[in-house]
Amino acid sequence: MDEVKVLNLFGYKRYSQVFPGIPVLYETSYFIQFDAFIVHLPITDIFGVGDGLNIFEETVLKLLAIGRFTPDRLADELCLSEDFIVFIVSALREKGFLEKGDDSVSEKGLNYLGVQNDRKTAAVSYVPYYVLCRRDTGDIIPMLFQRESIKLGEADFNNLPRRIIIRSGTAGNEKPVSIRMVAIKRQHNKRNLTRKEIERILTYYNRFSNRQIKISELGEVESSFEPYSIFAHLKFVVQNGDIDHILSSVGIQSHFAGFLQYINAIRHDFAGNILKKAQNYIAKAPEEKENGRKHGKYSYLAEKLSLPQNQVSNNADARARQDAESSGTIAKYLSAIEVALDIYLQQIEIPDSLLNSLHIQNAVDNGKLLFQMAQNLGIRGMDVMQPLFHIVSYESVKKWQRGGEPSLHVLFPLACGVQYSRPSQQFLSALSVLEPEVLMRLFSYGKIVRHGGRLNLEKGDSVENIHDRVEDFVKSLLPDFSGNTGMQLVNKTAMSATEQRLNARVWLLNSLGDEIYSNIPDKEKKQLERSFIVSSTVDANLISDFLLAISSALELELVNITHFLNVVRDMSVVQRRLEEKGGLPHGLSRVNPKYYELAASGRSATLGAYALAFAGTLPEPLLINAIRHHIFENINDIAEARGHGTGWKDFSKDELIRLRKKTIETIKFLEEMKDIGGIENV
Known about the structure:
The chain is an alpha+beta fold and about 675 residues long. The chain has 27 helices and eleven strands. The chain has four domains: about 1-40 and about 125-280, no CATH class; about 50-115, Orthogonal Bundle (Arc Repressor Mutant, subunit A); about 300-475, no CATH class; about 520-675, no CATH class. The chain is elongated.
């Protein structure tokens, strides 16, 4: 194993956890090798989405900017508990508004408050960032990566497939991540970045990241070439509902085309291979997918949200059974809330400052701290939730982080603390659809059922009503949860359409090969993919559409080939040459001369006319070779099938597949003829 530098912003998260608004059909990860520059920027401000301060943090920061305040004095001044003040100071320190050594207000804090800094004449503070560049061309990736985001990993260069192993996660909860890597030989000359290039990178980065970086005009921008390459963790995604556009991301924005262009330039079959893997993935049974990672959790959550069958009976035993089932259902709904909070907190992660505060306090004080945070969120009715906050031990939080069972009296207070530190619209939306009073009633019902008591719902509550409230809560908290299907993917109709297109694309890739597939025009690809609709039960209209698709694909191929070539203007000369060599099918002998003139001029004509125009471009050896491979016979068969009139409905599935096979064979022959220069050299 060799030690390498790695950039891993995703950690062990899935793409949909970082970008929940994009429906994912399939995703895969690679560590891709880049060169890098180290850029030293004279930074004045760095503010982002998560850097805004709430009213408590801003007030404490203002007091600390005035003078020295101990936590107990701050607590007295603001009429807040001392442990809450300690947490606020810790959060300010973590965000960089306070110096780590003595808790004095930092440069960033003074800039935030708009205070004129007396130290403005001092030397400018430089902050180092990494900038990646392609190893094949030297092209710059216009993104900035903090030095802290570069870690060390272990690379196995000797075995196939080559992999990099790193550890990711919070302290004490790290997980090993093993991902395939792509090593790339450097082919460009080393150089340094100009200030203009760096400013362009900064403009792009500020536009698409959630952080805004401002550099001082007083300081010089410095850059140097990093001697060691960096392997960046990239995710490539096939979208559900749009397989034409594969997404690539390092974790800053949902898609950056430069990453996809880089890997496609190195591996020409990359996009095709991802589509094939996506097809294999969706063909698997649900329980096989991803070893039940997030898919399993969502399926488990969907099972918890299932409605019981509504069967009314006068039979006492049946009613007793229904009561028991209703009790079990209510318990499942409480469990659904716990599982949803579990997934949500795993997605957004818990700030270290909050964990540190919970670690140094006892369970009772933790409950008080988290409840005060919850109250400060300004959510109506939070007082009724106080029983959930009585005891929150650090040990119970760590037990949950290590895979323990989720429980409401741990996860809900924790979610409130995270919301205070790292605001999320999802959590507020979820609480707005499931009021605290309803949540507490459900919590009480769940306790009764779990302890074997007899459940009596309060007036106005019903299994169906509670189900709807809980489902709304879950969908608000987890926008990518699609309901009782238990899948992140969109509805079955859309899924079916995507699967059909994916199957067609993979069939075409396998039929033509990656190189020929990449060379033919997109319109031609779409026509060939349309032909994949053949099935044993297709009706006459679909057969007509199929025949139109394969003939249109051939027309596009022939037009593309003959467009820049000299075509013999006399059709009879072309037909006579073919006939002398035994290569003139009956249908091509009856082509209308007017259509031939149109085809020879590159205008709209018939398939037979295009075939003869193509024959009119070929010298003797190539014409004989085309006849030997039955090219004109194939085109004639397809043209006649298209003009079959009402006889469309008489085609069997085998006959249609045979015609499609002839189409593919003909296109492959024509493309291979182009590749060896046979046509261009005429």
